[in-house]
Amino acid sequence: MEERDVEVTGIITAVIIGLIVGALGRLVVPGKQNIPIWLTILIGIVAAIIGTFIAAAIGVDDTRGIDWIELILQVALAAGGVALVAGMRGRRP
């Protein structure tokens, strides 16, 4: 597989994971979040990346089966990001 194919696959994977993590984060936050879906995906991608780095730093990034702690970190970060951005967008004049 060429290096370019790996980069494209990595980007597509990041978007899919970001969509899932962002959606889960949005579901965790109570109330209505008045933010567009593209921003939810972006928050999810950033949360997935940061959550992976944190999981690696504490040594729980590579476990047998599903990496539940890493997933919980990612969703919690996405929920925090969604709440923060929704709160900021809600206060606009």
From TrEMBL:
Belongs to the UPF0410 family. This is Transglycosylase. GO terms for cellular component: plasma membrane. It is found in: Cell membrane. It comes from Paractinoplanes ferrugineus. Keywords: Cell membrane, Membrane, Transmembrane, Transmembrane helix. PANTHER family: UPF0410 PROTEIN YMGE. It comes from the Bacteria. It is a multi-pass membrane protein. The chain crosses the membrane at residues 6-25, 37-59, 71-88.
